Amino acid sequence: MKHYLERIEHFDGHIVMFRRGDALSESVQRTWQARFKIIGRNGYVTKSLRTKKYEDAYAAAKSMFFRLQQMINDNASINDHSFVRAFSCVRRIRLLLLVFVSSIDFCRVSTQS
């Protein structure tokens, strides 16, 4: 079975829209997916466009491509982050701030003595 049931390239191959050939639903019921080649990043980014209509999928893919490209230009992360991972980062930053503030307080106390 083919991996791509339908495959359409846009922007010189930077956006490849496709419907998966290995999905269980009928071909017209399959949602569109997109694979993006983002300039300045190695590899591809694959996302679901969450629609079955080509026109809506194309608009979503174009919007997503420009948003991802802008994120790379701004040095932002385009990887999805889970809540647990984000919360863990916040906890670490909070702990570092507490250590930093307490070290400032310690320096004030030692200079006043």
Secondary structure elements and their pairing?
Blueprint: E1 4-10, E2 15-20, E3 33-36, E4 45-48, H1 54-73, H2 83-112
Describe the protein:
- By secondary structure, the chain is of the alpha+beta class.
- The chain has two domains: 4-73, no CATH class; 81-113.
- Helices cover 44% and strands 19% of the residues.
- The chain is built from two helices and four strands, in the order ββββαα.
- A hairpin with an 8-residue loop joins β3 (33-36) and β4 (45-48).
- The model has no long low-confidence stretch (mean pLDDT 82).
Mean pLDDT: 82
Low-confidence stretches: none
Let me know the number of strands.
4
Strand content: 15-25%
* Helix count from the secondary structure assignment: 2
Structural class: alpha+beta
| Number of domain units | 2
Oligomer: single chain
| Residue share in helix | 40-55%
Shape by Cα distribution: elongated
Q: Going across the biggest sheet, name each strand in turn.
A: 1-2-3-4
Return the string of H and E elements. Answer: EEEEHH
Q: Describe the biggest sheet?
A: 4 strands, antiparallel
Instruction: Note the gap between the termini.
Output: 79 Å
- The rounded Rg comes to 23 Å
In a few lines, what is going on in this structure?
The protein has 113 residues and is an alpha+beta fold.
Short key terms for the protein model shown above:
alpha+beta; single chain; 2 helices; 113 residues; 19% strand
